[in-house]
Amino acid sequence: MKRKPTFFEAISTIIVMVIVVTTGFIIFDIPIQVLLLISSAYAALIAFRVGLRWDDLEEGITHRLTTAMPAIFIILAVGIIVGSWMYSGTVPALIYYGLKFLNPNYFLVSAFIISAICSVATGTAWGSASTAGIALISIAGQLDMNLGMAAGAIIAGAVFGDKMSPLSDTTNLAALVTKVNIFSHIRAMMWTTIPASIIGMIVWFFAGLNSKSSANSKQIKALLNELSTAYNINIWVWVPLIVIIICLLCKVSTVPSMLASSLSALIVGTLNNHFNIVDGFKATFDGFKPEMTGMSHFSENAKTLMEQGGMMSMTEIIVTIFCGYAFAGIVEKSGCLDVMLQTVAKGVKSVGTLILITVVCCLMMVFAAGVASIVIIMVGVLMKDMFEDMNLDRSNLSRTLEDSSTMVLPLIPWGTSGIYYAQQLGVSVDQFFIWTVPCYLCAVLAIIYGFTGIGIRKKSSSENVNNS
């Protein structure tokens, strides 16, 4: 490299990325992956201006992608475990009992809890919203409830479960980018997510006190009947869940734990549900299909619930990681990140300021891009060293990344999540925005914690030794 980029050259890579992604995605509906590659091309031009060659850029991209491989392994394992848990009946059983014991007198709180259970089980907020969420919003309509309230509680529960699940792609991505153990990351997120959710449940409790109707939904009864007919829901369906818990308690690595659970799920599905074992292996690759149960007819709700998982379902997030890391690798290799870091660092005088700047950067980028993965990658890479320099544990950064990106995604009308939830639940973003309480409270709590020191973890002495 002949010279360092100027601040204008460095910041222009981000500005161009924001313009390209915003214009291309919102106006022309171009896939985010393509837009990231276009942004990478501009970043490459800046790299050539400062004296780098294509071989140098390949080296930077390869180095950055190498750090992503552990998360990619986990993401593929997530697809396997969701498909196999659908085959064994573990996920359907979780949803079955969640819907069965719904308390109509506290519908909004119950809706949040049910959505959260579904998302923790599957690791996907979208899957939760498109299965249990659809059933719950139908019940809300029959109870003559405010659909904005109901959708807000459902979406908040779905995002909460996604954020707190070790099977979630964004949760694993945030842990990967910041090099934090996945369970340390989840424990750190409890500081913001649980208080925000408690406040949300208090709001939903009082908001729903006037809804005293009894839930007598034919749709939900039909769904429960289909699940109990398709699967043999008994004690054996919990074996895969028990296996992964035991493995993780014994400190077995995440991927082997998930694969062991998946193997047990295939055994349970074959022996307990009497499904074809060949279909079980197919489910781990291409997802579970309703016809694998041997039944010929299912409602649309049941089909949506059951068509889950498989490694192929994870290809989009993996491609996004590759495209995002290509951009990040070029920007980092050209020295643009260092220049931006040095400039941003001048305004950081305290932990509170650092957290605030991180939140603002995430919010700006997530509202521009409409997706969390690129925000987690870019801001995580940009801010990681600054958290290190202030003697902060990296879990503070990983938590803040999700507080101000993953959680706010449903609130962006032009983002993929905002569009998806509005279409699935039939409620517009402006109707449910105010009722998704934890989605916007987490970022607020993150800033408060930064200035008060609450929930802020310092690096351990061993980490200081390793980093010295």
Automatic annotation (TrEMBL):
<keyword id="KW-1003">Cell membrane</keyword>
<keyword id="KW-1133">Transmembrane helix</keyword>
<feature type="transmembrane region" description="Helical">
    <location>
        <begin position="7"/>
        <end position="28"/>
    </location>
</feature>
<dbReference type="InterPro" id="IPR004770">
    <property type="entry name" value="Na/H_antiport_NhaC"/>
</dbReference>
<keyword id="KW-0472">Membrane</keyword>
<comment type="similarity">
    <text>Belongs to the NhaC Na(+)/H(+) (TC 2.A.35) antiporter family.</text>
</comment>
<dbReference type="GO" id="GO:0005886">
    <property type="term" value="C:plasma membrane"/>
</dbReference>
<dbReference type="InterPro" id="IPR052180">
    <property type="entry name" value="NhaC_Na-H+_Antiporter"/>
</dbReference>
<feature type="domain" description="Na+/H+ antiporter NhaC-like C-terminal">
    <location>
        <begin position="157"/>
        <end position="454"/>
    </location>
</feature>
<dbReference type="Pfam" id="PF03553">
    <property type="entry name" value="Na_H_antiporter"/>
</dbReference>
<feature type="transmembrane region" description="Helical">
    <location>
        <begin position="313"/>
        <end position="331"/>
    </location>
</feature>
<feature type="transmembrane region" description="Helical">
    <location>
        <begin position="34"/>
        <end position="52"/>
    </location>
</feature>
<dbReference type="GO" id="GO:0015297">
    <property type="term" value="F:antiporter activity"/>
</dbReference>
<feature type="transmembrane region" description="Helical">
    <location>
        <begin position="64"/>
        <end position="86"/>
    </location>
</feature>
<feature type="transmembrane region" description="Helical">
    <location>
        <begin position="229"/>
        <end position="250"/>
    </location>
</feature>
<protein>
    <submittedName>
        <fullName>Na+/H+ antiporter NhaC</fullName>
    </submittedName>
</protein>
<feature type="transmembrane region" description="Helical">
    <location>
        <begin position="433"/>
        <end position="452"/>
    </location>
</feature>
<keyword id="KW-0050">Antiport</keyword>
<feature type="transmembrane region" description="Helical">
    <location>
        <begin position="106"/>
        <end position="139"/>
    </location>
</feature>
<keyword id="KW-0812">Transmembrane</keyword>
<dbReference type="InterPro" id="IPR018461">
    <property type="entry name" value="Na/H_Antiport_NhaC-like_C"/>
</dbReference>
<feature type="transmembrane region" description="Helical">
    <location>
        <begin position="351"/>
        <end position="383"/>
    </location>
</feature>
<feature type="transmembrane region" description="Helical">
    <location>
        <begin position="188"/>
        <end position="209"/>
    </location>
</feature>
<keyword id="KW-0813">Transport</keyword>
